[in-house]
Amino acid sequence: MSLLLTGIAELTTNDPARGDGQTDPGDALLGIVRDAALVVSDDGDVEWVGPERDAPDADERRDLGGRAVVPGFVDSHSHLVFAGDRSAEFAARMTGTPYDGGGIAVSVAATRAASDDELRALVAARVAEMRAQGTTTVEIKSGYGLTLDDELRSLRIARELTPHTTFLGAHVVPREYATQRAAYVDLVTGPMLDAVVADGPGTLAESIDVFCEPHSAHAFDGDEARTILEAGRAAGLSLRVHGNQLGHGPGVRLACELGARSVDHCTFLDADDVDALVAARGTTVATLLPGVEFSTRSPYPDGRALIDAGVDVALASDCNPGTCYSSSIPFAIALAVREMGLTPAEALHAATAVSARSLGLDRRVAPGQPAELAVLDAPSHLHLAYRAGVPIARALEL
Ligand SMILES: N=CN[C@@H](CCC(=O)O)C(=O)O
Ligand SMILES: [Zn+2]
């Protein structure tokens, strides 16, 4: 049964060629159609998009009552496979204790202790929480197991909920390897990676990630990160990097040099990092995670300067128990607008079209594309940042 959606006050298509007015630069970027309609085929693909006055017939009709429809958010950076929480660590940070990655060990212990069913239920609840806020695609990392069996278990559970899974055995060096860092890198690049790709690259994980951070004793320096990423690439995985989160470091330049799909955080950047990101445009996306700066009392990176320089900028939640236990893309959009200088249109584009590109996806609303959409209890996408903290976005259930 095909479905005609009408009563769409404003439809963001992410397709500049489809926009109606294109007088405003934001309209052009988002390909906005006002007073729009959409036809969705019975297999869930967009069949037709355009002004409601031109809409064809369909088997069923649903009136959205003057709401805005936007592409479903693509949360391209999350760590949903964990047990327990670290609210006390958050409270301590708010009174001045800096974040250094040491608390990850607390989540590793809780995650290892959880049963498969407990962990599965926790992850499913977090994905549902995201969907209820408009996220229709999510990337999920392992990284709170840090043994071969626990990393595989994390990836299997994540894989039940999304095809976009990332092997993050190189999240931190676990406590039992604290005096044998090289042995842990060997474990990640040897037996763990072999097991992750045993049934072919992309079966259990499509990407490999590393927390490249010389400012944390727990994370990996540039040489270690290079070894891990090169091994992952040789095994057929695409690359993602946690880079330049706690201070200046080699993560961003390494990600650009190795052709990573994404380098995430980018909190501390120098001119060389920005040059590397500009040169890597079209290959490596800079994913900003403003919820992390919010939850760690860190300075926000200058997103405006990155976009003006020509960098591909994505936005994601980084939902995790340590640096940002928020699953809300609207919250990330509001912070990006208020604190990083993005326009509302750029922030929405970053959290849909650009984050999708970092996962190898196309998030345009166009015939032939999956109808992955979010509906807003508001007439315009501007309300995502304007009505910060108000739950106006949800995934459109067909
Ligand atoms: N920095 C590394 N990983 C996560 C935080 C993990 C944690 O503290 O539990 C991040 O993206 O910020
Ligand atoms: Zn992260």
From TrEMBL:
Entry cofactors: Zn(2+); Fe(3+)
Binding site for Fe(3+): H77, H79, H242, D318
Protein keywords: Cytoplasm, Histidine metabolism, Hydrolase, Iron, Metal-binding, Zinc
Source taxon at top rank: Bacteria
Pathway annotation: Amino-acid degradation; L-histidine degradation into L-glutamate; N-formimidoyl-L-glutamate from L-histidine: step 3/3
Reactions that this protein is recorded to catalyse: 4-imidazolone-5-propanoate + H2O = N-formimidoyl-L-glutamate
Residues that coordinate or bind 4-imidazolone-5-propanoate: R86, Y144, H171, Q245, T323
Subcellular location: Cytoplasm
Cofactor: how and how many bound: Binds 1 zinc or iron ion per subunit.
Predominant location category: cytoplasm
SUPFAM superfamilies reported in the protein's UniProt record: Composite domain of metallo-dependent hydrolases, Metallo-dependent hydrolases
Annotated Pfam families: Amidohydro_1
Annotated EC: 3.5.2.7
Domain Amidohydrolase-related: 69-378
NCBIfam families reported in the protein's UniProt record: hutI
Record-stated family: Belongs to the metallo-dependent hydrolases superfamily. HutI family.
Function: Catalyzes the hydrolytic cleavage of the carbon-nitrogen bond in imidazolone-5-propanoate to yield N-formimidoyl-L-glutamate. It is the third step in the universal histidine degradation pathway.
HAMAP family named among the record's database cross-references: HutI (MF_00372)
Protein name: Imidazolonepropionase
Gene that this sequence comes from: hutI
